[in-house]
Amino acid sequence: MPSIMKRSALNLSASIYSALRTRAARLFLLFVLSSMIMATVMADGDVQRGKEQSVTCAACHGQDGNSINAEWPSLAGQHEKYFLIALNSFKDSSRQNILMSSQASGLDEQTMGDLAAYYASQSASPRTTDPALVSQGERLYRGGNVERGVSACIACHGPSGRGNLAAGYPALASQHSVYTENQLKAYRSNTRETDANRIMRDIAGLMTDDEISAVASYIQGLN
Ligand code: HEC
Ligand code: HEC
Prior knowledge:
The protein has 11 helices and no strands.
């Protein structure tokens, strides 16, 4: 190949490369910008306004989002994404509960965002695991049950039970074991069907009562 052609081929590939680099850079910039917009949308909730709105919720969920009745969930430390998914599921009746459903029906989007921001800003009070259930609970949470195909909870709910904000997977750490057991049994019996792609119904459907109590107790002690 004459050196002049070689040079122009080199020049051509260099310019394509730099064009690609710019395109990639532009795409990256777009990605960064849209993530920033997403973050502002998500962070739209106002913690102070949320605190004021939470007075009615406090009767069941506790002053600071740590409930004192083991059948009622703590909300403190739950991330905004799952909080809104859960609240909306009561609002559109895809999840039903005598005590909770009427609470969600009248809330507008701004108020729900403020409440989500407030509860996410609170910290879950640490609780404990029944010492007799620690080893079974920990094994299930971290490794699942390979023989029966129960997935490890850690994959989605995280090593310390904080959930996954990007994916919307709920934080579970320090939650009352009674509430957690009830939810796992509700998934198992298809009473709760809010999980897209049956993600939790399929997992809970493979679990025994003993496994459910052990993992729920382990989760209560995670913090
Ligand atoms: C009368 C008691 C009561 C009041 C008041 C109440 N809730 Fe609830 N809430 C519950 C119960 C009980 C559940 C669990 C329902 C179930 O088992 O499915 C729940 C569940 C929730 C959940 C889902 C939690 C999860 O981890 O999935 C959210 C979010 C929530 N409530 C938010 C609120 C907000 C916000 C308010 C105030 C506007 C409020 N609640 C007022 C009783 C109450
Ligand atoms: C593949 C991901 C995935 C795995 C693995 C997984 N979960 Fe979940 N879990 C979810 C998602 C998503 C939701 C929310 C579903 C919904 O909106 O109903 C959820 C919801 C829950 C809830 C209800 C939380 C609440 O506040 O009401 C409990 C309890 C729970 N999971 C426990 C477990 C346990 C225990 C394990 C392990 C045995 C486990 N999960 C494994 C994805 C997962």
